[in-house]
């Protein structure tokens, strides 16, 4: 790709923005790269873009070039506390589509109150790394189809990494699973990040809701982290997800940030 957009620069030289591939744009001023833009298609089909530039004027030039080259709608994700970035995207015509709260979640069961949680009758928890891959992938597909038929997968956590087509469970070892009557009915995914593990997803089949399975999965995951010496974990919750908000706030999780998903239609 070689579409070129030349605009006034930040000093005495013009900023030249060039589309160097289907998904990348480079901004060059006086033979120096002063910014870049990227585009990626998420598993749900939405097109997300990002821009890295030191100067607001360069950001605007790259944004103009990408918007001229790409079809709408376009999406991006920003830290709500980063007012400069939020303002820059708003200048480009983006508006807030949804907010996702970031929670710092204690792992000590005496703090969370999960020490008294009992696994529902007939349900067993299969620890992370021990689940059978085939049934796990089948459960993931059932849950994704249920979410898509209800609120839509776009309502799930904003930070969804691009994956090969059709692949939804990248690393089965991160999943602990709830099993009932020889069926997998729910799971929790924990990414064991060094600084602070991340609870990526807790999900239970629709026909098994309101039975305490999600709470049992959370108690298992946090208890395992606590026993390994981890004091807290991180989780993101869509602000419109009242059930998940109540679940985390009910165990003493505290809001520690927020992410905005922005859209330009």
TrEMBL record:
Per UniProt, which keywords does this protein have? Answer: Acyltransferase, Transferase
Q: Which GO terms describe its molecular function?
A: acyltransferase activity, transferring groups other than amino-acyl groups
Q: Which InterPro entries match?
A: Acyl_CoA_acyltransferase, Bact_Acetyltransf, GNAT_dom
Q: Where is the N-acetyltransferase domain positioned along the sequence?
A: 123-265
SUPFAM superfamilies named in the record: Acyl-CoA N-acyltransferases (Nat)
Q: Which PROSITE patterns match?
A: GNAT
Give the matching PANTHER family. ACETYLTRANSFERASE, AMINOALKYLPHOSPHONATE N-ACETYLTRANSFERASE-RELATED-RELATED
Q: What protein does this entry describe?
A: GNAT family N-acetyltransferase
């Amino acid at each position: 790709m070689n579409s070129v957009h030349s605009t006034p620069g930040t000093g005495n030289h013009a900023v030249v923005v060039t589309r160097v591939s289907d998904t990348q744009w480079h901004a060059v001023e006086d033979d120096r790269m002063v910014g870049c833009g990227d585009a990626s298609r998420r598993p749900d089909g939405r097109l997300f873009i990002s821009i890295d530039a030191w100067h607001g004027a360069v950001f605007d030039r790259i944004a103009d070039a990408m918007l001229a080259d790409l079809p709408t709608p376009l999406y991006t994700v920003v830290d709500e506390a980063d007012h400069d970035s939020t303002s820059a995207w708003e200048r480009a015509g983006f508006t807030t589509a949804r907010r996702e709260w970031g929670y710092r979640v204690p792992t000590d069961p005496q703090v969370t109150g999960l020490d008294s949680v009992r696994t529902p009758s007939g349900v067993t928890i299969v620890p992370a790394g021990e689940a059978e891959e085939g049934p796990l992938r089948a459960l993931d597909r059932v849950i994704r189809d249920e979410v898509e038929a209800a609120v839509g997968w776009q309502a799930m956590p904003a930070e969804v990494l691009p994956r090969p087509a059709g692949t939804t469970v990248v690393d089965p070892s991160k999943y602990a699973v709830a099993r009932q009557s020889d069926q997998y009915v729910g799971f929790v995914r924990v990414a064991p990040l060094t600084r602070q593990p991340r609870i990526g997803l807790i999900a239970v089949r629709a026909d098994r809701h309101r039975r305490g399975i999600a709470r049992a999965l959370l108690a298992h995951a946090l208890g395992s982290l606590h026993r390994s010496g981890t004091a807290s974990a991180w989780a993101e919750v869509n602000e419109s997800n009242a059930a998940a908000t109540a679940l985390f706030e009910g165990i003493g999780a505290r809001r520690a940030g927020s992410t905005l998903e922005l859209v330009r239609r």
